[in-house]
Write a structure and sequence with these properties.
Layout lengths: L16 H14 L12 E12 L2 E9 L10 E2 L2 E3 L7 H13 L6 E6 L3 E3 L4 E10 L13 E8 H4 L5 E4 L10 E6 L2 E3 L1 H21 L1
Parallel strand pairs: 1-7
Antiparallel strand pairs: 1-2, 1-4, 2-3, 2-8, 5-7, 6-7, 9-10, 10-11
Helix pairs in contact: 1-4
Length: 212
């Protein structure tokens, strides 16, 4: 996967400084990631951690899954899904699914780098997250009604705030043991998405240290 080959980078559209630093951190981290080879009874998936500018401030988009979808009903997720034969790789999967679920044009996304693959043992997915930056500010997301119940646009500064981080019984879900989760208003982020957020926040902290 050649992230540097993303066509938008050749058009002279620089990433915001924090995301430039994040790209450098992810390039270093990527060398230690395991190769994604989903066993025969497991499915490979790709998700997109999408940054964009809203009112001059970096945001990340999530959405709440409907009760109609086969897995992770009612959970907050990044756009993404299972790989298909037509996808060149899981990064292509993440971009295709983001377009289908939220109307995000893949040609307007500069890819930043991958986060560590996340294993979801309960739902049998091996999830590969990819960070990207939507070059168009003030985007309008078009939710696919079968999959998307509600879109959550979260300022990055708020996502990084320590006060949203919790550990315990996940509110609104029948999970019998305590888990880490993030609470932003009525959005509860946990499970695979919560694990990806944790990896992202650690990488962002490293990016801050690298530029200090």
């Amino acid at each position: 996967m050649d992230l540097a080959a993303n066509p938008m980078e050749s058009e002279g559209r620089p990433l915001p400084p924090l995301l430039q630093a994040l790209a450098a951190i992810l390039r270093l981290r990527q060398m230690d990631y395991p190769e994604v080879k989903a066993p025969s009874k497991r499915r490979a998936a790709g998700v997109l951690v999408l940054f964009y500018q809203r009112h001059g401030e970096l945001h990340v988009v999530f959405f709440k899954r409907t009760e109609k979808v086969p897995t992770h009903k009612g959970q907050v997720a990044f756009p993404g899904g299972s790989g298909e034969a037509k996808d060149n790789d899981l990064m292509a999967t993440a971009l295709r699914e983001a377009q289908e679920e939220l109307g995000i044009d893949p040609d307007r996304v500069v890819m930043i780098g991958p986060l560590k693959p996340f294993d979801t043992f309960v739902s049998n997915f091996v999830v590969s997250p990819f960070c990207g930056f939507l070059v168009d500010p003030e985007p309008v997301f078009t939710a696919q009604p079968f999959e998307v119940e509600e879109v959550y646009e979260v300022p990055l500064e708020r996502l990084r705030a320590k006060r949203i981080r919790h550990r315990g019984r996940v509110p609104g879900f029948n999970v019998p043991f305590p888990l880490p989760y993030y609470r932003i208003d009525d959005a509860i982020i946990w499970g695979a998405t919560g694990g990806i957020v944790g990896e992202l926040l650690t990488a962002l902290d490293e990016a801050d240290s690298a530029t200090a």
